[in-house]
Amino acid sequence: GPAQAEMYAGLQELGVANGEDLKETLTNCTEPLKAIEQFQTENGVLLPSLQYALPFLDLHGTPRLEFHQSVFDELREKLLERVSAIALEGKVEERYKKLEDLLEKSFSLVKMPSIQPVVMCVMKHLPKVPEKKLKLVMADKDLYKACAVEVKRQIWQDNQALFGDEVSPLLKQYILEKENILFSNDISFLQNFFSPSPKTRRQGEVVQKLTQMIGKNVKLYDMVLQFLRTLFLRTRNVHYCTLRAELLMSLHDLEISEICTVDPCHKFTWCLDACIREKFVDNKRARELQGFLDGVKKGQEQVLGDLSMILCDPFAINTLALSTIRHLQDLVGQDTLPRESPDLLLLLRMLSLGQGAWDMIDSQVFKEPKMEAELITRFLPLLMSFVVDDHTFTVDQKLPSEEKGPIPYPSAIPEAFTKFLQENRIACEIGLYYILHITKQRNKNAFLRLLPALVETFSDLAFSDIFLHLLTGNLTLLGDEFALEEFCTSLFDGFFLTACSRKENVHRHVLRLLLHLHHKVAPAKLESLQKALEPTKQSGEAVKELYNQLTEKLELRKPSPAEVTETPSMELPLPTVPTPASR
């Protein structure tokens, strides 16, 4: 066919006879057998010793094709080895000259499957494949596919759109993987979204593939960063910030100095990476990070945009917020005010920078966000007063009670707390982490006290996937409380169900939680929840699927009618005694 013809067309250019020549010879000759013999002699392997060996192979029924093929394969292997050797020997310009000559000679045969590997190998070893050849490769889907990544990089660096097409499915896959972890059906306070170490995360498929695609090419690295910035702006999805940091650190692991030395965030990211690994910012590293921030020079403020994106990575925010909560607890013990602690102020500064990333990159105004004094003088002392309330209550419980009777846990929330959570992003983030902290401590009283403040928060942060993922995990520690009507009403009616109908993700997280804890929930409550959580026409597939799983589980739990009738009506159920609040 025409494809065949195209494939072998290159042979003629090189003065090698092909099928067409044989056809022509046979059409114009009087004695076909003699003509064939002559063609074989002229185009066969020119080794005198073969003259006698070939008839011997014929006697054994070995087809000439098979013989030629095996000689050919052998030669090709030798040639491939030789090409790789040339790429390493002699003076740089000489070896590349040799390879370029070889490419000139062989490129016309690039369509021949048997020769293609050799041509590809030559190109792979050329740091600069001639532009004309790259264009030919680019124009042909199959050739482009067959190319080594070393050659593709040369094509990509001048074709952002083509590179974008290659990178785009990987970025989609990355975001999907993150969301799958956040919505995973396995709920646990031990294993959560933030459990894997940074090193482990960087072994992920997408990061590895991108690292491989970029190689040592700064231009491609910059393109990927540009894609990530654009997508972050378009979607506000913070997982792109994680990928930005992971990619840099993956290149750092491979010691690719060509890129690491030109990324102005490298040292900052490296230091922060160590903090994320420990889930804590210690004093030594705090000084180091502060040094980087203070070292941003006039005229280089644009680097703040990049640093803010690194700090907006949820893994960074998580580390800064956990460290902030730990610092506040220490301050309570030391009787120190937040404004007197430079370490705490630095954590807040970095939180602000991270939380301000989107606005900074969007507005292109590169300066650190102003810290609101009230955050430090009013909000944080308020959180510290909650810590004090807990200590006081615990001590009170242990004191012998005289006539005064048991002291109730303070139930009112200071209005200022609710207002801060609604109006101040950093306060909201820290407030949410404080609530996660008390839940993890199984402090039911403090949890129920502060829960109402979560219904309305700054840009609905309390209904964000990362917070709900962590909250549902920590709530498994309060499993036994789900048998109590009051607890369930506060948690479900008072919090989750206020957003279920307008926020699909909240609906999913509640169903995840119930799939995990349904056996702990009082039956009457469970029934009303099942009704309230029924999917609507607008609900997505994920919600319907979770709801069906829950319904199936509950069906299995229902006693069969036979069992119900056998219960003697005389026995009264024992009243459930609430357990004393455990620390």
Number of strands: 0
Oligomer: single chain
Report the major sheet: none
Shape descriptor reads elongated
From the helix content, strand content and strand pairing, which structural class follows?
Answer: mainly alpha
Please tell me how large the radius of gyration is. 35 Å
Low-confidence segments? 566-572
Estimate the helix proportion, in percent: 55-70%
Distance between the termini: 82 Å
Protein name: NELFB factor
InterPro entries: COBRA1
Organism: Cephalopterus ornatus
Region (Disordered): 557-583
Account of the 3D structure:
- The chain has helices at residues 2-13, 19-27, 32-43, 50-59, 64-86, 92-106, 116-124, 131-139, 141-146, 149-156, 160-182, 198-202, 205-214, 218-235, 239-253, 257-260, 266-278, 283-294, 303-312, 314-334, 342-355, 357-363, 373-398, 415-423, 425-440, 444-450, 465-475, 485-500, 504-517, 523-532, 541-557, 561-566.
- Helix 28 runs antiparallel to helix 29.
- It has 32 helices and no strands.
- The termini are far apart.
- By secondary structure, the chain is mainly alpha-helical.
- The chain folds into three domains: 45-127, no CATH class; 160-374, no CATH class; 419-551.
- Mean pLDDT is 86; it is low at 566-572.
Can you give me a brief rundown of this structure?
By secondary structure, the chain is mostly helical. The protein has helices spanning 2-13, 19-27, 32-43, 50-59, 64-86, 92-106, 116-124, 131-139, 141-146, 149-156, 160-182, 198-202, 205-214, 218-235, 239-253, 257-260, 266-278, 283-294, 303-312, 314-334, 342-355, 357-363, 373-398, 415-423, 425-440, 444-450, 465-475, 485-500, 504-517, 523-532, 541-557, 561-566.
